[in-house]
Amino acid sequence: MKQIRLLLAAMMMAFVFAPEMWAQEAREAYAVVSTDTDGKTLTFYYDDQKGSQTGAYDIPWSEELPGWGNGGDTELITKVIFHPSFDDYHGLTNAFGMFANLTQLATIENLSYLHTENVTDMAGMFYGCGSLTSLDLSGFNTSSVTDMYFMFWFYRI
Hints:
Elements: H1 2-17, H2 19-22, E1 28-36, E2 39-47, E3 57-58, E4 77-82, E5 107-109
Parallel strand pairs: 2-4, 4-5
Antiparallel strand pairs: 1-2, 1-3
C-alpha cells in the first residue's frame, strides 16, 4: 500500500511540475516555402510543428488566394511536396487558387496525400501552371465540388 501511495505521489508531482510533458500540441495543416538547389519548394504538412517553422502559411487560408500565392515566391516555386503527415488531413474545403500563378512549378510529389472529398471550390486551382508537364488527378474525389471555373487556365500538357 505504501508503494502505491508513493507511486501516486510521484505521478501527481510529475503532472504538477512538468505539465509540458502532458501537454500535446494540436496538429495543424500548413505550408512552408523553402529554398533548395533547384529553386523553391512548397511543402504541405499536418503536424504539431507549425510554431517551429519560419514563415508557415495557414491552411485553410483566409485570403482570396493562399499566402504563398500572394507574394514574391509565386514565380520561384518549382516543386510542391505533400509530406506524408498531410495524408491524415481531411479538412480542406476550399482549393481555390491553391497553385495559381506558380508559373515555374514543374513537379508535384505525393499529390495522393491531398484529400479532396470535402472540397467545394477548385476554381483556378492550377491557373497559370504552364511549366507542369504531367498531372495525375485520378485520386481526386470531386463529388462535393461545385466550382471548377478556370481550374486549368494556361495549363499545358
